[in-house]
Amino acid sequence: MANSSRMTSLQRREQLIRIGRSLFASKGFEAVSVEEIAASAKVSKPIVYEHFGGKEGLYAVVVDREMRALTEALSSALATPSDHPRQIVERTALALLTYIEENAEGFQVLVRDSPSTDPAGSFSSLLGEVSMKVEELLAVSFKQRKLPTKGVPYYAQMLVGMTVFTGQYWADQRKISKEQLAAHIVNLAWHGLSRLEAKPTLRFEGAKAKRNAAQTAALPSPAIITVEPVEDADAAPDLHDEDDAPDPEPTRN
């Protein structure tokens, strides 16, 4: 199955990486075989083994490249913590969406289920690192606003998770531009953060909310004044003043 066009070793390696990325993105790691990779590249299976040692090795190279590209984009967006917080949120959202737009197949590889042998340098570990950087920025903001910092790690996870999963949905739809989507993400994230309660509670659900509802229900009902309907029309009070009564008709002689 030798290819008629001769490639250098580096060119062949890059070709196999491109083919592997495309197949992993469309079918997932488990569904792709070395035979399919070799057939798509029009080479024999030993060529794939020679360059990567097998499917797992090729997958690891693809993931590593995408991780480095995304890490660089997000690190750059978070590199200037002294900027206005909203600017950081906007820049980070746009950085992720730009990566998705320019590396659609690579992003699909990252968000798909990874093999059980996937090393620690996985997409989830990258999101954990990004969340930690967001957490550091939020902690500073919370302290400045005198808000409790206990919930900061959760807010960081919420922001990162919301952006990533929204980006994943957008990658499949693409009905609006990345700038429009970034504006929507920032709208929810920024206005939500700017109106945080110091001690958030559930108002309608949860044990505390139900106890409050039970206590409210146990209170005596307010007095209600009712007016009984008048059953006898003759007993109805005369609402006319005597002065308003019509004059009697004059008598005739």
UniProtKB/TrEMBL annotation:
Signal peptide: none annotated. Residues 33-52 bind DNA. Keywords: DNA-binding, Transcription, Transcription regulation. One of its GO terms (molecular function) is DNA-binding transcription factor activity. It holds the Pfam family TetR_C_46. Residues 229-247 have a biased composition (Acidic residues). Residues 10-70 form the HTH tetR-type domain. InterPro entries: DesT_TetR_C, DNA-bd_HTH_TetR-type_CS, Homeodomain-like_sf, HTH-type_TetR-like_transc_reg, HTH_TetR, Tet_transcr_reg_TetR-rel_C_sf. This is TetR/AcrR family transcriptional regulator.
